[in-house]
Every structure is written in structure tokens, then in C-alpha cells.
Amino acid sequence: MTSTPHASVSASAGRRVAGFVTLYGLGALLIYLGATHGFSGVLWRVFVLAIGVGALMMGERMRRATSMEILLTDEGLVTSDGTVLAARDNIAKVDRGTFAVKPSNGFSVILKTKQPFLWAPGLYWRFGKRLGIGGVTAPAASKYMSEMLMASLADEAAND
Predict the structure, then answer these.
(1) Which residues pair with 131 in a beta bridge?
(2) Burial group, residue 118, by CB count within 10 angstroms (0-12, 13-18, 19+)
(3) Among 42, 53, 60, 103, which residue's Cβ finds the most Cβ atoms within 10 Å?
(4) What is the pLDDT of residue 102?
(5) For residue range 35-63, what is the model confidence (pLDDT) as tens digits?
(6) What is the pLDDT along the chain (160 residues), one digit of tens a residue?
């Protein structure tokens, strides 16, 4: 990343902790139930234990993912570890309306071309031509980044 960031979005500390602690708690509860309570069959017990382990794994994945931040640079949207979420020339528009398909406290970016699937629980997801940024992020930072991105798109359209 060669340019300085114009805006950044990171996980809010309280929401981040609440998110992964909830997943850890769910996982621990399901493992406890699967190990101590009798179910009508072995398959149910294995199923509950597997879901509990999955919840623990998701909690850990969320804890690691939300330690990053998303940066808006001249090159586009990138994470603090260098992953390019959307190149600047691949961004078609920003959608942050009430009924938009977007994460909580965030916004959605419509891309010009399909991109491979990418997901960081609580921070972002990319599926096809849509990139969602938000989740456990601070609403003010997400709104600022989306406004900066919309302004730069409008400047580009005016210059064309």
C-alpha cells in the first residue's frame, strides 16, 4: 500500500468483545449440553457437540478478524494486513440505504466485476459483485468511509 488512508473502519471494542464472547459462550454451552445431557440418540449428541465446536471456532475467527481495520486509499478498499477488498477502478457504486443488502452498522459496495468469496466475521464479506463492510464496526466510522467513497465516485463521474 503506497498511499495514505483517507478513512478507516475498525471494530468497536465493546461490540467486538460482545461478539466473540457470545460465540464462545454459545460453544461452551452446547458442548456442555452435548457432553452431560442425554439425547435420544448418539447422532444428536454428536451433532450438538459439533455445533458447539463450530461456534468456538467462529468465535476465534471473529476475534482474529476484528483486530484488523479497513482502509480507504487511492488504490481502493484494503485491510490493514494488505488484503485488497476492492480495487478503486472496480467500484461501481455505494449502497447504504435502509433496505440495502448490507451488514449492520455498515454499507455495501457494488463492484463492476465478480470477485472471489472473502469473509472476515464481524468486519466484511465479499460475494460475487457485492462487498459488505460493517458488523461490529462503529457506525460513525462506517458512515464517514461510505460518504468519502461516494464523494470520490461523484468526482470521478464529474471528471469523465
Answers:
(1) 109, 126
(2) middle
(3) 103
(4) 82
(5) 887 767 788 889 999 999 999 999 999 99
(6) 457 888 888 888 899 999 999 999 999 999 999 888 776 778 888 999 999 999 999 999 999 998 999 999 888 899 988 889 998 888 888 888 777 778 888 899 999 999 999 999 989 999 999 999 988 988 888 889 988 888 888 887 777 6
The closest of 156, 121, 117, 122 to 14, measured between CA atoms, is 122
CA separation for the pair 115, 38 (Å, rounded): 46
Q: Which three cell numbers stand for residue 111?
A: 463492484
DSSP state of 11: B
Q: CA 85, CA 14: separation in Å to the nearest integer?
A: 25
Show the cell assigned to 156: 470521478
**Helices (H), ranges, the chain:** 13-36, 42-65, 139-159
CA torsion angle for 145, 79, 13, 129 (degrees, to 10)?
60
Q: Give 130's contacts (C-beta < 8 A, 6+ positions apart).
A: 101, 108, 109, 110, 111
